[in-house]
Amino acid sequence: MRDFLSRTRSRLRHAVFGATGESDDTVVTDGGTATGEAGGVVDRLNERFGEDFTESAPFWLPPFLLVGLFVYGAIAWNFVISLTDYEGFVGPDYSDLDFEMYVRAANDSGVIDATVNTFLLVVAFTTVALAVGLVLAILIDRNIRFENTFRTIYLLPMSLSFVVTAQFWLWMYNYNNGVVNIALGTVGIGPISWIGNSSLVLWAVVFALVWQFSGYTMVVYLAGLRAIPTEHYEAARVDGASTLKMYWRVIIPQLKGSTISAAIVLMVFALKAFDFLYSLVSGYRPPNGADILATKMVREAYSTNNWAYASAIAIILFLMALSIIGPYLYYEYKQGNL
Amino acid sequence: MTDGVADRIRDDLAGVDGYRVALYAAIVGMTVFFLTPIESGLVTAFKTNPGGVSSTLPFAPPPPRFFTLEKWQTALAALGRGMVNSALYAVPATVISALLGSFAAYGLTQADWRARYKAPVLAMLVAGIFIPYQAVLVPLSQFWGAMPLAELLTPLWLLGVPQSYVGLVELTITHVAYGIPICMVLFRSYYRNVSEEMIEAARLDGATFRRVYRRIVFPISTPMFAVVLIYQFTQIWNDLLFALILVSTESSPAAPVVLILAGLGESMEGQDFALRMAGAFIAALPTLIVYIMFGEEFAEGVAT
């Protein structure tokens, strides 16, 4: 049995690494049954990382390299470009690197506004979408009829593209004929120019995004609620807690895991809100009052060819994302999930 | 013996209390909130513009004199080519990224190499989900600009495929690369719950790492493949940013549907909302169908 195992392993190794031609000097360390062709590199890797490493490498290494190249390679390259003065159509000049673009960004009120708006959008959208999703999950979890139908309806907007939802909400917010202004009109408010008013547009965008994604939060919370043993509900009942108190004191504190995983995904969607804003203002125009770093960056790069400046803005956005990812990865690592 | 009608009604009402009424009112209220934008868009798409759109309530169905199918025809004519283009890259990119995600998850879950080395690899893949795409756009443009992809694909152009379709190949590869992290994470959460005894037994019987995947892990992944394929297809079909950067103009023969939709119904005279709404529905149709059909499975898969 052992012999057979190591023979198949060395055949696999040969198939994977044999063709590289680097395995000539054979040092057999694994029982002596290896055929001799597969040695050297593989054995040294085995010694250092364990045999499972070399066996599993064909599975995870190609996708990892693809991600490494396209994500991390690109970010590194982007950083280098941000240090150049690259503008226009001739490639970047890598001989003269400095932080000039970052200094320019720090003094650009457009970038500062976009940073503040990005922060506000992420925080407001995530908080409200979490709250709405939690309420929806609790409602759905109360033994109602047609549960599946309601769940599908709440989740439906998530299937839509940002471009599509932007069309819907542009029409909802329409000054003369939009549902929002007509509904407000019946109670004597408005009409209000939601998209045209620079102090309202960001909140109008947040509202639309909450509409699109709170169904997702609901699904995550629903799974969390269903994982809580019924005894916890019963115990609270026996103690005489009201329904509201039971949720607030007993149930919601147990949903921490759901909250974290939903919040992370919502923040990712918020950072992608570029698509929504691009469609809302139809093109590269600045969404006045709702310009976020993502829209500012794409405009600088693809509308005015300020490539180096756009790269610097991209790095600022990346650092903002990193401030969310970093603690999250650390939390996952501590939980034993990595 | 038999209950009188009055008794039965009393019994029915006994189950109904103020609390249940409020609960259902809240649920129906939220349903209205989620459906209104969609419903309002749907009825508007059937209205004449100018005319019906401005003189009827936005959520009211069109009266016969304002009813028209013209906007749907116009939208379909404008978006049809884009629908085909989107499918041409969304389908292969979805399948390839799901497969690669599954491979990566298997290689990083079932193999027990040292955590000290595995954690950074996993961390880099997981972090890949959260990278704002703006952080890679400029290098991505540079990369595809420098790649002689058009020359590599010469046989395709000789077969009569328009050369601008090179953008669709770029989109496929790009979406595969950026889709791997989320696919990997979804599959990994699934593979961690796969019975270890079964795999141990197969290993002791002499099955190679690769064989275990082909004979055991891949076949039992079917439910997760459904979830990942739905999610990835939605993401790739709906994405505007990469389409905008890699294909750039909506007039290109290779323009994906979202790119054409983003500029639909715009003119000097103002916005044609009826046309926009019809276009929005046509562009959203594939993902809407997928969600209505598989929403249940998706909801369960995402929650794990």
From TrEMBL, chain A:
Sorted UniProt keywords: Cell membrane, Membrane, Transmembrane, Transmembrane helix, Transport
TM region(s), chain numbering: 59-80, 119-140, 152-172, 200-223, 255-274, 307-331
One family name in Pfam for this protein: BPD_transp_1
A Gene Ontology cellular-component term: plasma membrane
Predominant subcellular localization, coarse grouping: membrane
PROSITE patterns for the chain: ABC_TM1
CDD domains named among the record's database cross-references: TM_PBP2 (cd06261)
SUPFAM superfamilies registered for this protein in UniProt: MetI-like
InterPro entries referenced in this protein's UniProt entry, alphabetically: ABC_transporter_permease (IPR051393), MetI-like (IPR000515), MetI-like_sf (IPR035906)
Subcellular compartments: Cell membrane
Membrane topology, record value: Multi-pass membrane protein
Family: Belongs to the binding-protein-dependent transport system permease family.
Protein name: Sugar ABC transporter permease
Source species: Halobaculum magnesiiphilum
Lineage of source species: Archaea, Methanobacteriati, Methanobacteriota, Stenosarchaea group, Halobacteria
UniProtKB/TrEMBL annotation, chain B:
Matching InterPro entries: MetI-like (IPR000515), MetI-like_sf (IPR035906)
Membrane protein topology class: Multi-pass membrane protein
Transmembrane segments: 21-38, 87-109, 121-145, 165-191, 212-234, 240-261, 273-294
Keywords: Membrane, Transmembrane, Transmembrane helix, Transport
Compartment annotation: Cell membrane; Membrane
Family: Belongs to the binding-protein-dependent transport system permease family.
The protein's name: Carbohydrate ABC transporter permease
